Amino acid sequence: MSKRFRRREFLIFGSAATGSILLKACAPAAPPIASSPTASPAASPASAAASGGIKVGILHSLSGTMSISEKSVVEAEQMAIEEINKAGGVLGKQIEAIVEDGNSDWPTFAEKA
User: Is 73 a member of any domain?
Assistant: First the structure.
């Protein structure tokens, strides 16, 4: 069953839509993007990964009360990493999983993160 708009509702929604369109049209243009990055080589994550593979941290509960649900998550993440590595990795780099156990304990998670 369709609901009919009353005149007041139509004017409110119509005014809101028109106002948002006008505000978008009056917004300043985006500044041009520089053609070359200016980041220093020491701060670049690519330079850190140039020495070897890409390390990915996996922090889930492998023991404790939450291990029942989180072991399967770790296995799924490891399967995804294997699949990516078989396909050539990321930008030619192999991914290395570093698995840590959070022990279902918040302070342990905070320490290992």
Answer: yes
> Number of structural domains, the chain?
1
Instruction: Give the residue from 104, 68, 97, 70 showing the smallest Cα distance to 82.
Output: 97
> Which phi and psi angles does 39 have, rounded to 5°?
-75, 145
- For the chain, the residue count is 113
**103 Cβ partners below 8 Å, 6+ apart?**
61, 62, 63, 64
pTM of the model: 0.52
- pLDDT category at 106 given cuts 50, 70, 90 is confident
Domain that holds residue 50: 45-112
Torsion-angle region of 24 (φ positive above 0: left; ψ -120 to 50: alpha; else: beta): alpha
